[in-house]
Amino acid sequence: MAKSNSIAKRYLNEVSANMSCRKTTKKYIVKELSQTVEGYITEHPNCEMQDLYSEFGDPFQASFDLTSKEEYKDLINRAKRKAKIFAIVSTVLVALVIIAIVLVIVLLNKYGGEFEISNIRQD
Predict the structure, then answer these.
(1) How far apart are alpha carbons 115 and 105 in whole angstroms?
(2) Could you count the other beta carbons within 10 Å of the beta carbon of residue 115?
(3) Which of 68, 69, 49, 46 is nearest to 59 (CA)?
(4) Separation between Cα atoms, residue 61 and residue 49, nearest integer Å
(5) What are the tens digits of pLDDT across the range 82-123?
């Protein structure tokens, strides 16, 4: 079993070394792939590194394929977050504009359209 673990670890390290993505994305991908590789090794206890290459692809191609999928998901999630933030900021700005308009209307009604800075009480 120790040999199998070292083969899995070596393969995962090779895949990880070829990834060019954010650290958190890389950790997630390697964790998911680790479970899959370990499952394969459990089913095939005498497998060699070449068997992993045949099953999952060479480390460069595997890292490219996995990174592309995860980066796409990551980009979609970031775009959704930015859209939510934009919607919240826009809503707050619209609310502030409405409050400002209502305040101006109230002040104009209170002072009969003759609002001047001198009309404000100074204590």
Answers:
(1) 11
(2) 14
(3) 49
(4) 15
(5) 899 999 999 999 999 999 999 988 888 887 666 555 555 555
